[in-house]
Specification:
Elements lengths: L6 E5 L5 H14 L11 H15 L3 E7 L2 E10 L15 E9 L8 H15 L4 E4 L6 H6 L18
Parallel strand pairs: 4-5
Antiparallel strand pairs: 1-2, 2-3, 3-4
């Protein structure tokens, strides 16, 4: 187990966007999404999304470093919504966390928890009233331990994607 001093969590810089995009891609692969189901332009798509989110949605990424090597990352931003936001910011200003990823050799050492806590702190600092994320089965215990609650989100798969 790594000690507190061995893990450094810091704000990512734009020059690290490609590495964070690679983590995002690998996250999907690790949960069983096949290469065929991922757009071959995933890197460009992710970099463009990140650029726009940085300009419009207070996007911020954080990285975890051990011995000056990045071993994990997380992204967060204002939640842009699935429908028109007719509520005041004081009532509903949601933040969204996405792309929590830790290299396999460094998992189960509290890194995802520390990354998520940094993202939550950023979203709180920009005035968010709630944080939303979509958890993988392996991520649910991490987020539950941080106080995240299961939501009332429901889904109906209309097309089954083979992994």
């Amino acid at each position: 187990m790594l000690t507190e001093r061995q893990i450094t969590i810091r704000e990512a810089i734009p020059q690290e966007d490609s590495l964070i995009a690679q983590h995002f891609y690998q996250m999907w692969r690790d949960i069983g999404i096949s290469d065929e189901a991922i757009n071959p332009n995933w890197l460009d798509i992710t970099l463009q999304f990140t650029k726009q989110a940085r300009q419009e949605l207070f996007y911020q990424a954080f990285v975890a470093e051990i011995d000056n090597v990045i071993v994990g990352s997380v992204s967060c931003q204002l939640f842009s919504g699935l429908y028109p936001n007719v509520f005041t910011a004081e009532y509903r200003k949601y933040g969204y966390i996405w792309g929590v990823y830790v290299e396999p050799a460094y998992r189960r050492q509290g890194i995802a928890k520390k990354l998520t806590q940094s993202a939550v702190a950023h979203l709180k600092a920009i005035g968010c009233t709630r944080v939303v994320l979509n958890a993988s089965p392996s991520g649910k215990p991490v987020y539950s331990n941080l106080g995240f609650l299961d939501s009332n989100a429901m889904q109906l798969d209309l097309v089954e994607i083979q992994s």
